[in-house]
Amino acid sequence: MRVLVVGSGGREHAMGRALATTPDIEILAAPGNPGTAQVGRNLPIATDDIAGLVEAARREEVDLVIPGPESPLVAGLTDALADAGIPSCGPTAAAARLEGSKAFTRSLADAAGVPSPVFRVVGTTSEIDDALGSFDSPPVIKADGLAGGKGVFLPDTFDECEEIARGLLAGRLGDAGATVVFEERLVGMEASLFHACRGTEVVALPHAMDHKRLFDADRGPNTGGMGAVSPNPVGDAALEEATRERIVLPALRRLADEGYPFHGFLFSGLMITTARPVLLEFNVRLGDPEAQVVLPRLPDGAFAEVCAWVAGLRADPPEIDLDPRPTCAVVLAAEGYPESPRRGDPITISPGLDTKDRWFVHAGTRLSDGTLVTDGGRVGAVVSRGATAVDARRGAYDGVSLVQWAGMTHRSDIGVSLHG
Question: What is the number of domains present in the chain?
Fold first, then answer.
């Protein structure tokens, strides 16, 4: 099988590593990074070049395309591949609105009876005061469209809410903020649950917990994710069943009923309150950095089997026996992340970092005249697997000490409040 992975981040390197556990598979990545080049061959095609990706898949006689990020899915990559007769492990543009439009997701979840926070959708500045008046405390503010992880705000006062909403509607994030969603701010433990979906059939993948804030103790601005652990410490069979039956399946059925069956990876971002799991958001792909801790817990060859089933290349859903060993990923970021990350700093990685249970996942890196340098905000992650969650965390931080570049930053408490 020849597979094309679309994307250039840590998630795509993690996908490549998982695919490489399948015998007789050839891996291509577009555009990829130095990590994907270790497990396959990179193609210099941007993720937003839909026509170029389709042409490359046709030229390379690819059997399956696995999109990593959300933007090409929202832009219609799966639709274009289908028109060319090329199987894809991702939803159509219509189904990808689950991530491409937060207002769409809130309306669909409401219609499907999915437990959700109270919300209001605002399209003009004249609606702000009335919308804010419906909340007893400052709500979460979200840009409706894709904003590269920068579209969610957690203001402390109503005045901040108004300022943020006005800024978004005025173009602070371009078209992504042309519509704004206010959501009730919930208290509890967050969880990330993943399902591979084919219409209204699902296969559960390992769950995880992301750490979004930049600084220790969940302080500072939201980021794309500063680390993750799997399994989620609050994840159990009851949570998995409740998520599947009350959140995932109702949403999938509603999409199918409206003519947009979902084929791909569905990320359910949950808040676990004292009463029940509540849907914070859907993403239409594997999370980043959650993929870095989820995929290593699949048995060898399982990820390729799951992707083939989602894309319709095999009839029956695969049965997966998860690796019980916990995993921990600590993201290493560039100076200035998330607002203005510095690029071009040489990276030194000790040869002792990579072992059978610990490795470095490339994200924002590139080769410059043979030297590995930083090339993004989240430069990479050290991932470790251990007999216990404590062992996994210890291994990850031991590995962090073996990576260096000027201005490197990371959180020191990934998983610590959970596992000691």
Answer: 4
